[in-house]
Task: inverse folding
């Protein structure tokens, strides 16, 4: 592309002259060069727009109140209304799931099972001598089910019944209470054996990252079944 200077006059032949560079393509065609007057025209339009907006914003609406003051006030009021609405909603919102009458939970439901404690050494009198171990396991199970969003409200107690075998297998019992008018639905869904078992098993999977503790439970050893016999009823009466 070649560049050459051309003299440009304004207001005919008598106007001021100035040089502009005009580019030519290799085939001899001249490429378009922006006229300085176009740039001046665009700048003039922008200045006119800004001047008009400024003049309109400074128009007096009422006494000394200008238009821009009104607009800013409206935006501030809208923002305050939004914040106030969010605050009111959060204050009066009540989670229906968190409101329940525990006195209506009278129907017991028990699950029995066992799990392996691989870091413990079995002894015949382990259950009687290691009450701290029993207490720690009960606290571990209680914390697990009390913190469950789905099962926490129904959970009542966890018990460790005995230790057995050389590799220390703990027999446990979990007790839940249900409202009488919802017991069928809860047995089939929320408090089904599958639901309770999966919550327990997921907890054991999560604690697999720290397998050195004495009350570490082998997740693959978990066993559970629903107790529909009198043992659940008798135990439930003792913890109510």
Result:
């Amino acid at each position: 592309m070649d560049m050459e200077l051309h003299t440009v006059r304004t207001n005919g032949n008598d106007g001021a002259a100035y040089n502009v560079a005009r580019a030519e393509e290799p085939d001899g065609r001249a490429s378009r060069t922006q006229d300085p007057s176009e740039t001046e025209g665009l700048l003039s339009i922008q200045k006119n727009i800004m001047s008009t907006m400024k003049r309109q914003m400074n128009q007096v609406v009422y006494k000394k109140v200008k238009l821009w003051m009104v607009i800013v006030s409206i935006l501030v009021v809208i923002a305050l209304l939004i914040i106030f609405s969010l605050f009111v909603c959060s204050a009066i919102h009540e989670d229906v799931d968190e409101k329940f009458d525990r006195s209506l939970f009278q129907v017991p439901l028990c699950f029995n099972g066992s799990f392996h404690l691989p870091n413990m050494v079995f002894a015949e009198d382990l259950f009687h001598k290691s009450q701290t171990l029993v207490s720690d396991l009960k606290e571990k199970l209680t914390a697990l089910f009390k913190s469950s969003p789905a099962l926490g409200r129904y959970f009542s107690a966890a018990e460790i019944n005995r230790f057995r075998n050389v590799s220390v297998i703990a027999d446990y019992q979990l007790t839940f209470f249900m409202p009488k008018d919802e017991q069928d639905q809860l047995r089939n869904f929320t408090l089904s054996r599958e639901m309770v078992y999966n919550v327990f098993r997921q907890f054991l999977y999560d604690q697999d990252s720290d397998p050195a503790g004495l009350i570490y439970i082998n997740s693959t050893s978990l066993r559970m079944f629903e107790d529909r016999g009198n043992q659940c009823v008798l135990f439930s009466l003792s913890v109510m």
About this structure: The helical segments are 36-57, 67-92, 126-129, 131-146, 183-188, 193-206, 230-239. The radius of gyration is 41 Å. Residues 67-92 form the longest helix (26 residues). Residues 119 and 182 are 41 Å apart (CA to CA).
